[in-house]
């Protein structure tokens, strides 16, 4: 077979067939299993959307009730995971703690070591049910507060907020997080989903694939953009400061976090519309619209000055902030939402697997020879350092 050269970043390159999620970047459309994201955001729940992503169909009432209670029954995590969180050295960031805990979770799973379809579905259920608990426990640990155990009577998002805060959220707050989680549940072959599928394609297990995905989501060009976007909004502080701040950032060639997208170049990220509406409703209800007006103003300035649209992270950030979620927990909340999509993709990968193994285009020197150590002059290391350092600058 001939070699096809993809551009850097694999932009525009199709690597697999999938029945899970469709993104139309030109028209700004996003579909889960063929259903427009707007319909799901407005009418569905996170649990129902997870069912849709995994099974390909919406559940009937009976199926949904059974699915919800199965998810709720799997929320508690083994005591060893709590002790692991307590024992982690050096106070790791929440995403580091989540990555470590999810990896360890495999050891507590009765289906660990089994890779048939039912075992993988069980693992997907447990991961989706337990990740909010791990995140909430770690939040309480950082705050030196007692952990709040899951309440099986509450819906998925409502229980998540309850465990984070230690008190039951208002119905609109629970609905707001539920909607945000639906909107973040999947997004075709984004970097973390691709990472999960690459890991699964080696026939490694579901936990390894999700651990890869969490490590990939952690980067600021992907999931951590929501945290960076909120930090930027907090730094801007006031509507008056928005224009000079953005002008200075663009003049310094900085990236404005929460703007731009690999796929939505001509159309707007459709998730923004629903997050922005929900943010508005939430702010109105709470009687403080500062973190609605500020992002709206920043978005119009960035559009005018740089032609970039906001992406999901830019409006998810103030929404999560308004819900009282600490900024460094935004990306873990994203992970707890996206786990539905990751696991759906991993199961799809197993169904029709072929090892994902591309090539690199070697551009280095050829035909060199091994030089004994006493004859080396050390120039190579010095000349490599600046190249690496430059690549790391954002
Ligand atoms: C998401 C992202 C990585 C996609 O980028 P991409 O398709 O790889 O595009 P590139 O990084 O090649 O950027 C193309 C051009 O747009 C500019 N650009 C893209 N996003 C930008 C941003 N957020 N702020 C400022 N400039 C941006 C780049 O500087 C580049 O300009 P140049 O051609 O003058 O050098 C990019 O838009 C970005 O870094 N956004 C901020 C992080 C973010 O919000 N990530 C979450 C995505 S959901």
Cofactors, ions, other ligands: coenzyme A
CATH topology name of the largest domain: Citrate Synthase, domain 1
Task: Write down the CATH class of the largest domain.
Answer: Mainly Alpha
**What is Rg?**
22 Å
CATH superfamily of the largest domain: Citrate Synthase, domain 1
What shape does the CA trace take? globular
CATH architecture of the largest domain: Orthogonal Bundle
Our measurement of the CA-to-CA distance between the termini, rounded to an integer number of angstroms, reads 38 Å
Helix count? 17
Count of folded domains: 2
Enumerate the spans where pLDDT stays under 50 for 5 or more consecutive residues: 386-394
Give an overview in words.
The model is unreliable at 386-394 (pLDDT under 50). It is built from 17 helices and 3 strands. 43% of the residues are buried. The protein has a 3-stranded antiparallel sheet. It has helices at 37-43, 46-55, 61-73, 79-87, 94-105, 117-142, 156-165, 171-183, 191-201, 206-217, 225-236, 239-251, 270-286, 290-306, 312-322, 330-351, 379-392, and strands at 21-24, 29-32, 35-36. It has 394 residues and is mainly alpha-helical. The chain folds into 2 domains: 17-219 and 328-351, Citrate Synthase, domain 1; 225-322, Cytochrome p450-Terp, domain 2, CATH 1.10.230.10. The protein binds coenzyme A.
């Amino acid at each position: 077979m001939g070699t096809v050269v993809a551009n850097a970043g694999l932009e525009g390159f199709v690597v697999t067939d999938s029945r899970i999620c469709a993104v139309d970047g030109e028209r700004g459309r996003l579909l889960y299993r063929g259903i427009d994201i707007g319909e799901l955001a407005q009418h569905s729940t996170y649990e129902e959307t997870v069912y849709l992503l995994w099974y390909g169909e919406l559940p009937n009432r009976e199926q949904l009730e059974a699915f919800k209670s199965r998810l709720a029954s799997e929320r508690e995590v083994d005591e060893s995971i709590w002790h692991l969180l307590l024992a982690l050295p050096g106070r790791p960031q929440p995403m580091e703690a989540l990555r470590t805990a999810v990896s360890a979770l495999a050891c507590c799973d009765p289906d660990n070591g089994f890779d048939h379809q039912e075992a993988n579905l069980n693992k997907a259920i447990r991961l989706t049910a337990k990740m909010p608990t791990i995140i909430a426990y770690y939040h309480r640990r950082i705050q030196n507060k007692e952990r709040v155990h899951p309440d099986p009577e509450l819906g998925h998002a409502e229980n998540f907020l309850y465990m984070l805060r230690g008190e039951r959220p208002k119905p609109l707050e629970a609905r707001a997080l539920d909607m945000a989680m639906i909107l973040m549940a999947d997004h075709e072959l984004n970097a973390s989903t691709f990472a999960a599928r690459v890991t699964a394609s080696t026939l490694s297990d579901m936990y390894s694939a999700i651990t890869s995905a969490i490590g990939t989501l952690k980067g600021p060009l992907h999931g951590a953009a929501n945290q960076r976007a909120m930090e930027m909004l907090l730094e801007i502080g006031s509507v008056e400061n928005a224009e000079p701040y953005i002008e200075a950032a663009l003049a310094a060639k900085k990236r404005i976090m929460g703007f731009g997208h690999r796929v939505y170049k001509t159309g707007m990220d459709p998730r923004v519309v629903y997050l922005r509406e929900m943010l508005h409703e939430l702010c109105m209800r709470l009687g403080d619209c500062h973190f609605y007006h500020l992002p709206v103003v920043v978005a119009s300035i960035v559009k005018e000055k740089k032609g970039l649209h906001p992406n999901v992270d830019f409006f998810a950030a103030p929404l999560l902030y308004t819900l009282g979620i600490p900024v460094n927990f935004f990306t873990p909340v994203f992970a707890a939402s996206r786990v539905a999509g990751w696991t759906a993709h991993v199961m799809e990968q197993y169904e029709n697997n072929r090892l994902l193994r591309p090539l690199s285009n070697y551009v280095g020197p050829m035909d060199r020879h091994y030089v004994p150590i006493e004859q080396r002059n050390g120039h190579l290391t010095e000349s490599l350092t600046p190249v690496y350092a430059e690549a790391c600058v954002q």
